[in-house]
Design a protein that fits this description.
Blueprint lengths: L6 E6 L3 H14 L2 E8 L2 H11 L3 E4 L2 H4 L6 E4 L6 H10 L3 E4 L7 H14 L3 E3 L7 H11 L6 E11 L16 H17 L5 E8 L5 E10 L3 E8 L1 E5 L2 E5 L2 E5 L11 E4 L5 E4 L9 H11 L9 H21 L3 E2 L1
Parallel strand pairs: 1-2, 1-4, 2-3, 4-5, 5-6, 7-10
Antiparallel strand pairs: 7-11, 7-12, 8-9, 8-16, 9-10, 12-13, 13-14, 14-15
Helix pairs in contact: 1-8, 4-5, 5-9, 7-9
């Protein structure tokens, strides 16, 4: 790919997140175009493509992956379909940007990461916050020792889901609160501690559909550090997070999808505080997509690849679900 060529994206399905998050960020990032959307219903796909500025619609996902003009594939499908289509896209030589979690089970994740490693494929799991300026700022605060030694992360991610037919409530499609939103807290804590979890415990409220509708847990990290978190689909939107250190704490109002009004506040035991805000107006996915474009043009080395970062999350999510089902502490 030359410097002047736009990255041509294929989108697998007309999922809401593709419309609401991916496409606005693709436009804001520049250097790429939405070349094709694959839909099981071609008429629906054509209407969606026309409405949202996608060049064309094709019938089925294979038609996107098999198109030699497509450089990168975005996968916003239900969790249970991630492994199949990520592997197919990598086998076709595409860069892959797959919604989180990378897969719905640990076994599927390991299989996908094995293929990515074998093929040296470019595969990203769509956790966006590591690419954001806010995460860089948090790392600077922690590395400078402004709050001493970090001992604990406390985090919430709750929202209200009123439609009982939503895929998030389907056990067959590998839904549930932990895989949908609790995974953010796990990924955030791993970033802050720069380590993988060693064990943990969880309790859950199980929906009639068979998935966890709410879940609360503790993940233990090396060095007697811990994540305390809860997640759910039955309450008001809340993503407030605290990072507790021996010499102070950091409060983050928007740790996972920072908005212009969100901020990072450092509080010291003497009552002093400092407030910082990224203040970015661009859509949330923009920084990640811009990075992918630069990687595909040979302008940057890849960062935050799934082969480097997704495995630790999958292990932690697996042990938390096993603990919620058995009522017992689970170790890695």
């Amino acid at each position: 790919m030359t410097e002047r060529e736009p990255v041509r994206w294929g989108i697998l399905s007309t999922a809401n997140i593709a419309r609401g998050a991916f496409l606005p960020a693709l436009q804001a990032a520049g250097g790429g175009v939405a070349a094709a959307v694959g839909s099981r219903d071609l008429a629906r796909g054509r209407a969606w493509a026309q409405e949202h500025g996608v060049e064309r619609a094709v019938e089925g996902y294979d038609a996107v992956i098999g198109d030699d003009s497509i450089d990168a594939v975005y996968i916003p499908l239900p969790n249970s379909l991630h492994a199949e289509w990520a592997i197919a896209a990598m086998a076709a030589g595409k860069a892959v940007f797959c919604e989180k979690p990378l897969c719905g089970t640990l076994a599927e994740t390991e299989r996908v990461l094995g293929v990515a490693t074998e093929r040296a494929a470019l595969l990203w799991e769509a956790f966006i916050f590591p690419f954001r300026e806010q995460s860089r700022h948090l790392r600077e605060i922690i590395d400078a020792g402004e709050i001493g030694e970090v001992r604990e992360v406390q985090s919430r991610f709750h929202f209200r889901l009123s439609n009982r037919q939503n895929v998030r409530l389907s056990s067959e499609l590998e839904g549930g609160a932990l895989l949908d939103v609790g995974c953010y807290a796990v990924r955030f804590a791993r970033m802050i501690f720069n380590a993988d979890a060693a064990g943990g415990t969880a309790t859950a409220v199980w929906a009639p559909e068979g998935v966890d509708e709410e879940l609360a847990g503790v993940l233990d990290f090396p060095g007697e550090r811990r994540l305390l978190f809860s997640c759910g689909m039955r309450g008001a939107l809340d993503t407030f997070t605290r990072i507790l250190g021996t010499e102070g704490q950091i409060r983050v109002t928007g740790p996972f999808h920072p908005r212009p009004q969100d901020n990072v506040t450092v509080l010291k035991p003497d009552g002093s505080e400092s407030v910082w805000s990224e203040g970015a107006e661009e859509p949330n996915f923009t920084a990640a997509i811009r990075h992918i474009h630069r990687v595909l043009r040979g302008e940057e080395s890849p960062r935050h690849l799934a082969t480097d970062e997704a495995g630790g999350n999958a292990v932690a999510l697996d042990l938390l679900l096993r603990s919620a089902r058995t009522g017992q502490y689970q170790s890695v």
